[in-house]
Request: fold
Amino acid sequence: MNDTLFGKIIRREIPADIVYEDDEVLGFRDIAPQAPVHVLFIPKNEAIPTLDDLQPGHAELVGKLVLAAAEYARREGFAQNGYRVVMNCREDAGQTVFHLHLHLLAGARLGHFGAR
Ligand code: AMP
Reply:
């Protein structure tokens, strides 16, 4: 298995502020938050390195990451105000951890983004 920092978080070998968990998805606060709410959602049972490694059979898994983020936003009460989800793929997007993850950003009016 492609073992990463996030694999260690799943196995509770390193600490994380876990705020969401179901059978397939773990959600924990980003250690360097870019917004008042910044939570990472990762698949627990498969460490896919990048978006570019996804196959058609991963459709349900990716859907569950998105649904977990949406459920968390509703549960925490900020869904009505809005939020952003981001998935970075490789160098140009600044991906640093090669275990598929979805960023949920919320809690403030977020600026637009693009090339620097
Ligand atoms: P990305 O740049 O899309 O690969 O996102 C990786 C994210 O993981 C970054 O936003 C980091 O701040 C975050 N991160 C790195 N190490 C940890 C950690 N130990 N606990 C929580 N978040 C982390």
